[in-house]
Amino acid sequence: MTATRLSFPVTGMSCAACQAHVQHALEQAPGVEQASVNLLLNSASVAYDPSLTTPQRLIEAVRATGYGAELPAAIPDLGQEEAVRERAAQAEFRELRLKAGVSLSIGLGVMALSMLGVAAGQRLTAWALLGVTGLVMLWAGRHFYQRAWSAFRHHAADMNTLIALGTGAAFLFSALATVAPGLFLRRGMAPELYYEAVIIILALILLGNALEARAKRQTSAALRSLTRLQPEIARVVRAGSEVELPLAEVRRGDIVVIRPGERIPVDGLVVDGSSAVDESMVTGESIPVAKAAGNSVIGGTINTTGLLRSRATTLGAESVLARIVQLLREAQGSRAPLARLADRISAVFVPVVIALAITTFVAWYLLTGQAPLIRAFTAAVSVLIIACPCAMGLAVPTAMMVATGRGAELGLLIKGGEALERAGRIDTIVLDKTGTVTAGRPAVTDLVALPRWNDAELLGLAASLETASEHPLAGAIVQEAKRRGLPLLGVESFRALPGRGATGSVAGSTVVVGNEPMLLEAGIDPAALREAATRLADQGRTPMFVAVDGALAGLLAVADPVRPTSPRAIELFRQLGLDVFMLTGDQRRTAEAVARETGIAHVVAELLPEGKVAEIRRLKQEGRVVAMVGDGINDAPALAAADLGLAMGSGADVAAQAGDVVVMRADLVPVAAAVRLSRRTIAVMRQNLFWAFVYNVIGIPVAAGVLYPAFGLLLSPVLASAAMALSSVSVVSNSLRLRRFR
Amino acid sequence: MGSDKWTVLLGGIAAIAWVLWYFFLARRSAARATAAASGTQEITVTVRGGYDPAEIEVEAGRPVRLWFDRQETSGCSEEVVFPDFKLRRFLPPQQKTAVEFTPQKAGEHEFTCGMGMLRGKLIVR
After folding, report:
1. Residue A287: exposed, middle, or buried by beta-carbon count in 10 A (0-12, 13-18, 19+)?
2. Which one has a higher pLDDT value, A643 or A63?
3. Tens of pLDDT along A342-354?
């Protein structure tokens, strides 16, 4: 019995009695061999038998006592798991390489000897070869025979069955010819020996397996590098001083100190300091993002220039990184529809190949005049050896693994093979306006001051007044003043008039901010700026007049600005041949202004929330394959209604989003990359399937000897094994080309 | 045609018939997961060049815990995948690893190794 150790934080213990109570509860839990609880570290360490209990049950045992406990951070576990996996893969690769190398040397040696004419056919040599070949099969090829046998017992057959049958038959034939050559001679046949062929076939297949094992590792490289992002230690403020703690001991609410150049250990909210953070590993955004108090940071990203203090928010399995890793694993665990064909074929492939090999044997035996047994036998063995179900089985999954991993590196979480394939087939892309094409946050876009005033005075007064308002447009004005570093003054006798504006007294002056009816009501003439206001309104912005002490002072315009990258993204969509639609609940004038600015051809405005879903259904009925891009929370129904839903998020909420694809930064350009990546992936999958299929469709008949009557062409079993070893390696290598996608 | 040719022809036909019967028609036995006191249905699946048992019967609506006992180091079987449940688990060599989920509806669900080469079937009743 192997005990597993687990340490986890326990909360709420205040005295030695509590400690004893928790420890006792753990010791009594089934499957626990030994438990110790540390009051000072607030943690428990348990040795348990993993076949009898799970970490979750241990946590529950603690919770049942009334104290708190939570599972340790998931990421270190993932890192550990990856390390175990890496070691196992390395060991396997080395073993295969060694076996391939040794058996290839022996095979070539034997071949050289027989070429030099060293007594081939002499009984002593034959007996020696029988022994050597038997040893090579037992040492280097054992796993083929073991696996073939265990599959056979379950009425199943796979690649190992073919290798075991092919080499096994060749070996037994040769052994019979060695032990009882008279049996052949009496019938007028040469006692042919295939020992060197058996050794070289095994060597080549082992070599192919070694190369394949290494290439397959690389298909999940992206996932591995994500699990390595999280640092193991965090610098946390405890009792007023900074201490370095293992990640598992960081609690929600801890203040974490991150120095310049360090990796941010856990998700958090910046409380102090300012810096630029490189989030490229999570969002794909190459330019570092400015962070200051109030911004959220993601564990695993790199703090570049300044010192940051952040309050830990989500930890362990709930952290952004862990959820991304989880989503990526789920995606890679799914199956792409294109694989169905390959699955159906490979389910019947091996028995059919065995039947074909028998047919080959019978046909050669019946149709050949001289030495029928030898010819028939060689051809049948070649058929068994050349057939390669692996290439077909690997064709689609390897491409999907590489593509979803590459997507994650580019800030695209593609949730599975089906989503990946659908993304490649879309012809229409529907964009939500607010928050997708535009930033989703109103901002001051224009400032017009009449001659007596300057911009700063005007904005300062308006912003001071609006500090008392709760209107979203007011927030934009205050934000702009803060951004410019303008002082905000106190407001007295503030009054808001819904749909019009606000008025109040700032530093002794009466300030009015509002639309034309508001000004007229206050007896102020907006004529001087009326034309400017109309022009701004035509551009989809919301103009607001500012008046001070009964006289017009200027004009402000607030709008939800188009994201700077949106026009470029829409151009990219057009280049991909996609029809672009924009849906919005906003007024037509605003929507059309945004469409003009970005180059969107089709706009549907003034929609009710359920109108978006209806519009997507209508487009689908036109026979289009529709992708919808929106924010994953408000637009969830529309995302679900589309053939492909792409949720655009940023930072912490990323992994919680609905949709088939999550775009991890607020930018439409990666959406175009998602479509291109999917199209490339589908192309690679098709190439792989085509080659794997054609390889077998051509290889098997050639091995069976259909070209012999016309061209005298016959494949030797050794050549067949080389072809087979190459075929699956080439499929995996072709998939790996997707790693270079950009 | 000599007698040896007749033997080979008839022997070949018989061999093909047997291969097709053995791999496609012969009955595979499904193992039923046993329910523990907690209501979780558990079974151990040996992973060694294949899954043993390769067909597992469980009841719908109750949690299932499959212990995959991987008794080899071959990279082929390092992961087990349940595409219908979106589950992918790494199986450390020479260890038992639990895969837990609750199937809601009756039906047949395939499970495979990471690359879809080894196959098993979960039958939910």
Report:
1. exposed
2. A643
3. 777 877 888 999 9
> What angle (nearest 5°) sits at the alpha carbon of residue A370, between those of residues A368 and A375?
60
Would you call A333 and B54 a contact, using CB atoms and an 8 Å cutoff?
A: no
Q: Which two tokens stand for residue B79?
A: 């992961």
Backbone angles phi, psi at A307, to 5 degrees: -85, 135
- Tell me the C-alpha to C-alpha distance, in Å, between residue B49 and each of A14, A212, B112, B114: 53, 17, 12, 13
Cα A76 off chain centre by = 19
Q: What is the pLDDT of residues A675-716, one digit of tens each?
A: 999 999 999 999 999 988 888 889 999 999 888 888 888 888
* Residues facing residue A545 across a β-bridge: A514, A555
- The closest of A531, A551, A555 to A462, measured between CA atoms, is A555
| Residue A603 backbone phi and psi in degrees, to 5 | -125, 130
Strand, helix or coil for residue A583: strand
| DSSP code for A562 | B
- Judged on CB neighbours under 10 Å (0-12, 13-18, 19+), A259 is exposed
Q: Which amino acid is located at A688 in the chain?
A: N
Name the one residue in this structure whose structure tokens are 């999907």. Answer: A400
* Residue among A620, A609, A542 at smallest CA distance from A581: A620
Chain center to CA of A533: 48
Buried b (16+ CB within 10 A) or exposed e, A528-551: ebeebbeebbebbbbbbbbbbeee
CA R_g for chain A: 36
Preferred mutation among B4, B78, B117 to probe A, highest tally of A CBs within 10 A:
B117
**CA-to-CA distance for B78 and A115, rounded, in angstroms?**
42
Kindly indicate whether the ipTM for this predicted assembly is greater than 0.85, answering yes or no.
no
CA distances to A107, A362, A371, A710, A717 from A367, in Å: 32, 9, 11, 15, 20
Of B86, B88, B117, the CB nearest to A158: B117
Residue A374, CB half-sphere, CA atoms under 13 Å: how many? Answer: 16
> For chain B, how many helices (H) and strands (E)?
1, 11
Q: What DSSP line would sit under B47-70, residue for residue?
A: ESSSEESSEEEE-TTS-EEEEEEE
Residue in A126, A354, A101 with CA at minimum distance from that of residue A134: A126
CA pair distance A141, A159, nearest whole angstrom? 13
Residue A495: exposure state from Cβ atoms within 10 A (0-12, 13-18, ≥19): exposed
Retrieve residue A511's tokens.
């300030």
**Radius of gyration for chain B, computed over Cα atoms and rounded to the nearest angstrom:** 19
Chain A hits for B94, CB-CB cut-off 8 Å, are none
Q: Which residues are bridge partners to B113 per DSSP?
A: B80
CB pairs under 8 A between A and B: 128
| Phi/psi of residue B4, nearest 5 degrees | -65, -35
In chain B, positions 25-44, which contact chain A (CB-CB < 8 Å)? 26, 28
